[in-house]
Fold these 2 entries.
Entry 1:
Amino acid sequence: MYRRLNVFISRINEEQAMSQYRTFTAQDAVDYAKQFGGLDNPSSLVEAQEIGDGNLNLVFKIFDAQGVSRIIVKQALPYVRCVGESWPLTLDRARLEAQTLVAHYQHSPQHTVNIIHYDPALAVMVMEDLSSHQIWRGELIKNHFYPQAARQLGEYLAHTLFHTSDFYLHPHEKKAQVAKFINPEMCEITEDLFFNDPYQIHERNNYPAELENDVAALRDDAQLKIAVASLKHRFFSQAEALLHGDIHSGSIFVADESLKAIDAEFGFYGPVGFDVGTAIGNLLLNFCGLPGHLGIRDAAAAREQRLTDIQVLWTTFAERFQALATEKTRDSALATPGYASAFLKKVWNDAIGFCGTELIRRSVGLSHVADIDTIQDEAMRHACLRHAIHLGRALIVIADRIDSAEELVARVRQYS
């Protein structure tokens, strides 16, 4: 009932906001950036270019008279772009994204994009320009290595997830935050795409006919479906920390010595292992796709680097979370020696399972990744997809038997 009441209130607020909503043109974005961009010389802004390549938003780069990109304007659309108006979406996700990124910036400013302004009526936010950075997914595909990225991602996850959890927040504040970040419509998308669609016949699923036997095996695998149901139940019920909710390599910008997370419209309070597992899953998707881009022999070193990245990511996250717990835990019971370590073991097992669902949903479901989809050779592309499906299935089923990052790497090698 509580969830339904919050949805009802959200819809009333959204209907009020929609009365003022309009879809931005490029000129609208320029005018808005001049007014709310916080620049010393806003009149220097003269042009906008729409750069959004996702399914949910308009994203404009705003340029000055010298052709230098100065600021970003992002507007949520009331539907899924790749489907159209037949799949409507809540505009309240723009509020949730802005507030998630603001909260994460508070705890990890060096690794979170800075939100300069947010307007709920127009579902628009103005944010810092990251033109000096590159999207990490594209760099991984091109085998451009950023030595600090995995460590920095581990730091981001540790700081944002610890400081929004019961370890750090007063119980009253934590409960208020859980209510503030209820995100039922976007969570429903995750619930369907991660835990439902790939394991049944569904019109949203998207995979080559040559993989039908592999996908049918997922639908017929009772052991797998029970494990996925358990993961979905954890996603439903464990409001452990304020998640990014979609922390894949396409939602991360990198530069030398710098990493910034963006695109948090799926933010909500959920299980810590979901963010960690999604991040690991995208590194493994790149691992699966690299032979299609570099050739089997030349991909070997890059694949070893991905496995090292996964170990660095987890080790950094776990060590930093443990240190924060030792230093800052406010609840006397949660501060009991040994409890933070026990909690991290549970996070690790959750992360492996969620990682597996990310591998499968990106291979079978609606939304794929360029790490595999841009492979030119069809037979190789299908082989990489098949690898991701079978690896994902294995990780989901044996998640509770993988005790460490080293054991995960050994299992990945076993299924390669």
Entry 2:
Amino acid sequence: MDYRLLGRSGFSVPVLTLGTGTFGGTGEFFKGFGSSDVAEATRLVDVCLDAGLTMFDSADVYSAGNAESILGAAIKGRRDKVLISTKGTFRHGGGANAVGSSRFNLINSVEASLKRLGTDYIDLYQLHAFDAKTPVEETLATLDELVKAGKIRYIGCSNFSGWHLMKSLSVSERYGWSRYVAHQAYYSMIGRDYEWELMPLGVDQGVGTVVWSPLGWGRLTGKIRRGQPAPANSRMSSKAGEAAPLIPDEYLYTVVDALDAVAQETGKTIPQIALNWLLTRPTVSSVIIGARNEEQLKQNLGAVGWTLSSEQIQKLDAASERPMAYPYWHQQMNFAERNPKPI
């Protein structure tokens, strides 16, 4: 397993991270991801550690906190062998303050996550979303205090707009507070909007990307193809599928056709190629893989240890490229010599 530095920090993380959205299966939404119990989660952690994958990502809202609890039980007795990343900000209770990135909620959320995970520190703590109602200064000051208290080692964010992230980095620099070294972002071969602004920002500011949903809500598994009925028991057919961004069917089929062609050339699977492609992109430090069972996990672990050729990457790039939104298309069309693409 290769390791990469996380953004402009000295913190090394494996290029693959195991996501724990499949742990628990509590509620209609997370039932669509999976329902691994402690025994199965422990086995998945065993397989990961044997392969050199040491980082595990969770969130306080995954299965109403059960995912963190199951992860904590699965790593019990081997905390020193793993890296834990988790997230907070989304609503996790009925109180007026049980949501957002306020000092009140962040402290409560971190303490609750530490308890569920059975640890006294979190390696990477990320805000799950931008909270426009809490001053950025309040949020970052609180995170800095938690870092200084030893409860968090590094901080990151998730699902921020470019200006959200840039403003936060500026405030951290102004006051000498801990800065975001990671941005957990949606990025896949069928979701390349990340490249328009967040990727150039990450390159410029030294923010590493931790990619979530790298297979585009399971649409890049090879099970969805032109002229074939959609699989009955997929994430897209569950409650979780309702949150998936819409894309044209023909665009998806074109990307899958290109993946299929490269799969035949390499002898790899379509998911393995889609994951490996992401690891060729600028700013990507780690890609979060999910697994309902041991077989799926071992298949995803096969995404590393080999490389795509430049011709294969170009083929995949061309099939998955989409028209840019404004002002990005204007910048590329009229001033590309001064605003080159970071890819």
